[in-house]
Amino acid sequence: MRATQPPWSAEREFSSFNGALAFDADNHEALWRYLEEFPAGFLGRHPDGAVVRISCTLKELENVMGTVEGPVLARAGSGVVYGCFETCDAATGWLAGAVRKGWKGVIEFAPEARKSTLDLWPAPTDDLKIMRKVKNLFDPKNLLNRGRLYNHI
Question: Is the pTM of this model over 0.90?
Answer without folding.
Answer: no
